[in-house]
Amino acid sequence: MTVQIRYMFLLLVCISQSAYAQRKTDIANSKKIYEGIWRDNTNNRNISISYDSTLTYVLINDWTGGLETIKERSLAENTDAYKAFIKGDKLIMPAENDDHHAPYCEISISADKLLIYECNGMLNFTDNFLKKSESTNTYIFKRIRD
Questions:
Q1: Domain interval for residue 35
Q2: Which residues are the signal sequence here (predicted)?
Q3: Domain tally, the chain
Q4: pTM for this one?
């Protein structure tokens, strides 16, 4: 019995470690959907989603500022960088509670090709799932450049 419990524990550890493993086909499909620059006019916010063959994650740069900041990033009021991982047809940004505090977020594409960026509340740095029972922040972005 003890041996079975140990094997189950090891199996769970292995599964959790590979939960965000990125396959080449997943990366290629995700890249077609998400790569580019997106803008949320309502909140004066922009994101750039990029893929690098040497990275095991998707890089998301998020900044505030008008359209002029897209051409000249030095004009941006505030810029943050995040790691996202491909999970199915979504990009997942795990919660971070170390030197860069960030809530768990999910990024998806709506039927009308808008980017839906949904996050837990800004003080929730521990849950790695969308906690719909509490307040979540949702932002809608439109692609402005591939």
A1: 22-145
A2: 1-21
A3: 1
A4: 0.75
